[in-house]
Amino acid sequence: MNKLFTLFTLLTLAGMARADILINPNIVVANGGQGYGGGRIHVCTLTPFNSVYADAGRSEWLARQKVSRRCQQGQGNNSLFCEPAKASCITTTLDERLDESDDASTLLVFDGARQRGESLSIDRDIPDLARYGFANRISSFTVPAGWVVRFFEETDFRGGYYTRKGGEQEATDFNNRIKSVRILSR
User: Fold this and answer.
1) What is the DSSP string of 139-166?
2) What is the pLDDT of residue 26?
3) Residue 52: its pLDDT value, please?
4) Geometric angle at alpha carbon 115, from 42 and 122, rounded to 5°
5) Where in this chain does the record put each Beta/gamma crystallin 'Greek key' domain (predicted)?
6) 142 to each of 49, 97, 103, 161, how far by Cα in Å?
7) pLDDT value at position 98?
């Protein structure tokens, strides 16, 4: 989501009135299947004629090279319009939580799927989510890296439970059935 927002912001800033957008759908920012979990990413675009080519990389140099290759696939090899030096680039962060809160070291629970809708930031054990108007409302959540959290179906940490580790996740196994939350480790 953050990648798309960044790309659309970049295109808006470029003043494009109408353009065909060709974005690399396979932007990979992982190392051996393990996500980096944040950090900087560089997004570069080239805009020959009415086409917009975009790609991303861990360094500006890499992003420029990737968008240049992508542009050349559409415009032809050695196209003057696809030189890496002509790319417009921005630097952004991969950690979406920085956009949503100042404190990225809290559990975020949402009443909608895919981390959308009303949310509650949790930094301590909550024996009764009803006190916060969130009992039986959790549909998705974001657990900070390194944390282990347990979601309980009853108040006061009783009943069936589901244990989850860091990352953005859907509450598919226990959607709208959680009444208390305990942070097991940080």
Assistant:
1) -EEEEEEEEEEEEESSGGG-SSEEEEEE
2) 45
3) 86
4) 105
5) 106-184
6) 41, 9, 13, 17
7) 42
pTM over 0.90: no
The full set of domains in the chain, from first to last, is: 2-95 (no CATH), 99-185 (2.60.20.10)
Nearest-angstrom CA–CA distance, 67 and 27: 11
Helices (H) and strands (E) in the chain, counts: 3, 11
Q: Do residues 27 and 3 make contact, with C-beta atoms less than 8 angstroms apart?
A: yes
83 Rama sector, left if φ>0, alpha if ψ -120 to 50, beta otherwise: beta
Q: What is the DSSP string of 100-154?
A: H-S--SSEEEEEETTTEEEEEEE-S-BS-GGGGT-TT---EEEEEEEEEEEEESS
CA angle (42, 43, 47) in 5-degree steps: 145
And the tokens for 99? 């956009």
